[in-house]
Every structure is written in C-alpha cells, then in structure tokens.
Amino acid sequence: MLYSIIKSNTYQDSLRLMQLSNALNGTAGINQVSVMMGSPTNKEILRSAGLDTPEVDGAKPTDLVIVADVADAAVGESLLAKVDDFLRYRAPVSGRSGLRSARSLERAVGMLGQADLALVSIPGQYVASEVHRLLDRNIHAFIFSDNVSISDEVALKRRARESGLLVMGPDCGTGRIRGLPLGFANVVHDGSIGLVGASGTGLQEVMVHIDRLGGGVSHAIGLGGRDLSPEVGGITCLQAFRALAADAATDVVVLVSKPPAASVRDEVIGVADELSKPVVAILLGERVEAEVEGNVHYARTLEEAARVAVELAGTRSSRPVALCPEQRWIKALYTGGTLASEAAMLLGDSLGLTGNTEHRHEVIDLGDDVYTRGRPHPMIDPSLRTERMAAVFDDPENAVLLLDVVLGHGADPDPAGALAAVIVDGLARVHADGRDLAVVASVCGTEEDPQCSSAQTLILEQAGVAVLPSNAAAVRHAAAIVRRRDASTVSMPATPEPIRRLLSESPRIVNIGLREFADPLLRLGAQVVHYDWRPVAGGDPKLQALLDALS
Amino acid sequence: MATYSSIDQANAAVAQRIIDAQPRLVDVVPAKTVIPALEGRLILHAGPPIAFEDMPDPVQGAAIGATLFEGWAQDEESARRMCSEEIQFAPNNDFRAVGAMGGILTGSIPVFVVDNATDGNRAYTSMHEGEGKVLRFGVYDQAVGDHLVWMRDVLGAGLSEALKLFPDGGLAVNPILAQAVTMGDDFHVRITAASSLMFRELAPKLVRVGMPQEQIESVLDFLAGNVNFFLTLGMASGKATLDAAATVNAGSVVTCMTRNGREFAIRVSGLGDRWFTGPEEELDTLYFPGFTDADACPDTGDSAIVEAYGFGGLVSVAAPAVQQMVGTGEGGFAEALATSEEQAEIVVTHNPNMPIPNWDFKGVPVGIDIRKVVSTGIAPLITTAVMHKEAGIGMVGIGKVRASMPCFTSALEALADARGITPTA
User: Fold this and answer.
1) Are residues A433 and A299 in the same domain?
2) ipTM higher than threshold 0.90
3) CATH number of the domain encompassing residue B293
4) Nearest chain B CA: its distance from A102 CA (Å)
5) A241, A521, B167, B327: which has the fewest C-beta neighbours closer than 10 Å?
C-alpha cells in the first residue's frame, strides 16, 4: 500500500533527503520510499516512480513529502519517527582525531609553517629520496624504516652533518625529543638524563629503569643499528654527544650500543671522555675492564646503566644546584653505623681518597658511642644530628650535605620532618649568602613502616633534598656532584643551530607513513601534521623520472 | 610570446590569467550568429570528438532532437539517418563553447555570450532549459521544441535587451561567484545561490525592457523556478577564463576537462588544443527514487570545466549540501574539509578574490597542475548530475566521479616529449 506524510512548510536540502531516502529504503516492510520537497519537478519524479497519492498531488513546493510503498499501515506510521530521527543532529561518524593530514610534503610543511622534524616510516626503497627532500628543507629525520642501504645511510648522514641536521636511523625504533615519543616509546618522566642509542629496546629498557629509579629523561636520540659501524663511523652518535653536552636540560649522557668497531669505538669514547657531562656507556657484550675511565662510566647491564645514570644525575625531583669553584667538600652526617661505613668506603673509592690527607670530606657516624654518651641514639632523637647541621650549611667550602634517614619500629616517628625544618632554614641562609648547597639523602625504610618511606621522601624533597633510592646511590650522587666541579673544560665544536633548536624548542613534526606514530604526539599537544605518504606517481619509475625532469 | 624559465613560472602566469579574468554575460543570441560554422549542418557536442554511433542514447536523442528543431528532418527516423550519415559533429570546446550533459548545440539554439573583459575573448553556451522533458536529456517533442523557441524568441531576446541596460554592457560574473561560494554553492550540483543572485540582477532590468505582460511573466516565472539557471553561465565563464589562460601556451595547468559518455578528456596549457583522453571512472551516485546504477548513463558533459575552473568538487568545503556526498558521505564538515584539502594538493594557487569563510578564508583553488595530479595520484573530484542511460527519462541522481588518471599521465608524457625529455627507467 502507498502511504504518504506531508510536513508542511518544512524545508530540507534535497541531497540530504536523497540520503535519507536511501537510508530508509533498507527498512523491513518498506518496498520503496522517497522523501522530497513537493516541487512540481519532484512530484513528477514521484509519479514516474509510482509513488503517487492524493496527498502528494496537493503538496506545495515548501512541503516535505514522505511517500512510501509499505507492507502495512503500521510500517507507514513508523516512518515519520524514522525521518525525524534521521534529521536529528548526529555527530559525524568518522571521528577524525583532529590530526591534520596532507598528501604532499609541501603541504604538510605549509600547514606547520615550517617543520623541524620528520618521522619516516615508509618502505625502505623510498626512504633515501624522501629524506633527501627533508634535508633540502632543513628538516631533521627520525627514520623508523629499515631496508635502507648502508651507502644511502652514509650519504644521508654525511649530508645531514654538513647541514647541521640529525638523521636518526634508519631502523631507529625509539626516540624522544623534549618529552615527545618517536616511534616505539614508553611513557617516562622528564628529567636530566640524555640518551644516545644504537639499540631500540636497549634504549627503552634503560629509560624504563631510569623512570623506576626516580630519574627522568631529557632526550633519547636513536642512531639506528649501523651508526657505529666502520662505514658510518658514528656520525649521528658524535653529533648527538655534542648536542647533549650543550643542551641545558641534560646533565648526564648515556650511550647504549653493541660494541662498536674498534676504530669507531676509539673516536666515540674519545669524544665521550671530553664531554663536559658524565657519560654512562653500556656496550653490550664488551667486557668491562674498569667501572670508570676518565669521564666514562661503564655498565655491564642495561639496568645498571640506568642506575649509574640516576646516581650521577639525581632524581627527577632533585632541584638544580649551582656550586662555586671553592665548594668542594662532602659532609656526611649519619645515624646508621654500617651506612656510614659504606659511605666512607664508597667515597674513598670514587674520589680516590686513599692515602690522601689533604681533603676535608667527612663521614660522621652520630650513633657512635662518642656521640651517644648521656644522650639517646640519633635514630630516636634527631636533635643530635640537627644541631650539627647548621655548621655544615655555614661553611662556604662545603658542597654536599649527605644524610641517611632510617625508618622502622623504634625509630623517631618523623625523622624527615625534623630534618626538613633545619634544612629549609639552612638553605635559606645559604641562598641569602649567594651560595647553594646540595643536600643528598637516602631513606632506609619501607612503605609499611610506621613513618612510610614515600611520605618521608616527599617531606625531604619538598625541603630541597635529592633523595636517592639507596645509600650507595646517595653516596655516588654526592661524589658525582663534587666531581663535576673538576669536569673537563675541553672546548667542543659549537652545536649547529638546527640541532640546538630541535632540543630546546618545541619541534614541529611531519609524520610520514604510519599514522599511529602521530596520534600520541597529537595527544601530547605537539604540532604535528600527518603526511599520508604514497609513492610518487604510484611508484611508476618512468613517470617519476618524467616528473623529476619536469620539476 | 613570453617565454618562461620554468614550468612553475609558466603555471604562475596561467594562474594569474585565471585570477585576472573578468567574465561578463553580454548577450543572448542564436548560436550561429556567433559561431558561423553552425550555419551549416554541424552539431556540436560535449567532450572530446565522438562519432554519432558511439554517443550514449540520450546524447543521440538530443542530436536527433536538434536535427528536428533545425528543420533538417521531419521525423525521427530520417533525423537519425542524417545524424549518422550527413551531419558533421564536433566538440563544443573547439568552437569556444561548452554544453551541459550531451551539450548538443545547433545554430538556432540560443546561447549565452560571455565576454572576458580582461583578455577580450568570448565563450558560448546554451541556456539551462529547466528540469523534466528537455533536449539535454535526449527528449524531443512538440513541447520541447516550443520551449526552445520560447527560450530563443522570448527569454533570449528579453535577456539580450536587458543585458544592454547594465552599465558595463553586461552582467559581471565574478561578483556572483565570489558571493555564491560563500552561500553554499559549488556551481556544479549546487547553484541555487548563484541562480538567485543572477535573478536579483536580471529581474529589475528585464521589467524595463518593455516586453508584453504575459512574456515578462513567463520569463520571471521561469527564472524564479530554475535554481540551476546559472549552471551554464558558470561553465561559459570558466571556458572564457580558461581559454584566455591557455593562450599562455606553456606550463602544465589543465585548461579543459570534459567527457562524452565514453571518454574523459583534458587539455593542458603547454600542449595547445591536443586532447588527452582516458576511460571514465565509475560514478558514485545518490539516486532519485526508483533508480539504480543500472539506469545511469556514464558521466557526460562539458560541465567538468567547472572543476577545471576551481569549483565543483574542489570547493566541497564551501558547499554544505555537497558535504553530504563527498568523502564517505557520513563525515560531515570534516570530510568536506578533507576533500578540499586533498584537492588543494594538486592546484597551483588560490584565488584571493574568492575567499571561502569555512576554509579560514583560503581562496578558491586555481589551476590544476597535471604534475601534481600524477605525482600524488590525486585525481580532480567532480560533482555532477547523472542522467538516465536511455533518452527521454532525464536526471536520475547526483553523483561524484574522479577525473580519469590516464589523461594526466599521457599529458605528462606529451609535455616531457614536447620539451625533448625522453623517458628513462
């Protein structure tokens, strides 16, 4: 049966109504349906289609006409609700993420104004020409793609070096620039440890452990697995070292790699040794002869590299401390005897104090009988220690105040609180004097202890204390602070401006290839445009050659 | 002739001609008065050259109708025989003309005369006949013939007089394009705003011409009722503009796109009048009730000049109604924006005189560069009316279709050849 509904003086655009008609035509019980405005032309179309009722004949051009051939009246009566439902506003279904997309590099760059960095994840055979086009435009490249020939890699990296640009990769799995994840990347906290790596998951493992240990990452510059080969000669590695050495956000540099070729190793380690910042090297598979050689700390495992890096850099909650040249001494005021012994031993080792009587480093065990005669143990009564702290702050040659904080049953209910008050006061005096002083501590306690280790840690950190995960870590961190006084002053070549900007300003990024890599960047608020890459001229080499000739 | 140091420089010159063109509707006259070749037994048609036998049925129907209208034959059978044996056929585009659908044009059919004030060249097109039983859908009977006579002797004659009353000697088209593109028109399947603006310009002049009352009533009723009347004026303005641009005689900009129901064809600024043809892509059509893909005539008409001009599918972002059929058709504005952004990849520049508010006031795209089309694989998107494959039934829906990629690749090869570049690899 034919069923028609006229909605008088109701206007809808005809294309919308054609879509509506199509949508309704799939409905059960409806043989044919059309929704149109009642113009003479449309009424003629309805008549030709056999959808002709007296109501339709009487419709005006300003009337919305719904006419259907339906199984029964009930279906017809349901039509109006369906029409109203369709015409109700619905959000677009495509769910575009807001990621801007282009189909050519020119437009992608145009949308950003200028691009600084490109993530390249396209088939290897197209990488070289695409990255040359990036270098033409002064854009750094992070190349996730593999299957790029080593001769192309050498050519790209040499060209990049000449232009002061970084080519990370090819076959570069992970990276991080100013908190922005490149490729496969874990979510880790910002901090002062800069990484350079020829190994994707190696970098990831080190970054994850840094994060777990309370440290943070400034940048992670991936190199690709062949950067330290004799052919490539560590071009990107050396660029990255020098860039991180000059980068204000980075205090410690970590190198993660398989053992490089001997000639490359000499150059890379040679440059590492001359950096103004300590370097932690994990050359997986290479036998470690010494823990430290000059400026380079060697680790045997990825986890160890992370630990050493955090010990050198401090945690992400550490405040930056600027020391004067005359500030040289560590004063350790301990409440735990064995902790004090460990501190003395480690300091002796790492600062080379054996047989040296010229220094004024001190490790004092305040739990010793000498101090506790007639007084409670300092783990019970913090005043035994706090009353000695003022002198440490007031000596302008002191660099570090090193502390242990022992929790547990029997100990003071809030040792951190007692320390914090004195530290805040002492630092205020130091700052008023135009100086600074590093306060470093570890907390010997658990979450379940009555004082709760994380709560005590927070109190200390808020007072300006760098809290390391263990006593040994705290001691090494204190030693690193002092040692940095003597850091190398070998002058480095100036960091090229494009690389300096990459590490110090928010990069504008073109994502070329896998869309998935752009989404986290967008969520983090980065300026990113997706270049929906396809091979030029559909990959037809003859047309590509013609286009090149006609460009 | 100017020489250009690079294709980019030549294309910039071509684009500037397009931006600078000032098309004006200056007259309406029988076609043969401005296209002398139509004094003879010549029928012009849409698209690249095609034999009568190869034309789709509605185009053949229109040719037969035109033969009867001209009085060259008295019945359909003899008209069909004349069409296949005696009458010459040629593309509109070779005579500075364009036509919608089959684009059939003979000497007695009235045409718009569009003058490009900047370059002094002219273009012609038949007027939009309205919907239903009309010649362009291959229908010819007494009513169609009477309507054509009325269009020539009443509407055309009236418009001709009315146009003389415009201070500049004609109706300027750019202001209508610039306004209507901000009002939702794409000028190919949405022409309502431009047609309304055109009516607003014409009506006050028409009533001053001094036509008999019943004539002025019929003219105003027709114009008020035809929301597509501007379509062919837009096409002819594009033709006049792109013909002027083609005189640069260099570069890689598309100066014509058209289709004859069998083949898609383009012309390119640096390659003169050569046609580059390719097979037509499948139409993706929203149908009127009762019609399906089985009923559709392959894409036909010179109206793709609208896209070569920078409008149509290229300005989807500007046309809210068209947004519902571009992209997946479900994504709303984002899809339309993405479509225009995609199409912007293949053009030389944008026309600052025709900003699109929805597009952050970016201008209408100007100059499709065949190199960009081939390089990106993005073919121009055409929005179009779709007619029934059989003569006499008329429009069956609104569709979208991509320009045929082989046209662009063969033109690229020809361009390389013309510059002495031999393909390697």
Assistant:
1) no
2) no
3) 3.90.1700.10
4) 7
5) B167
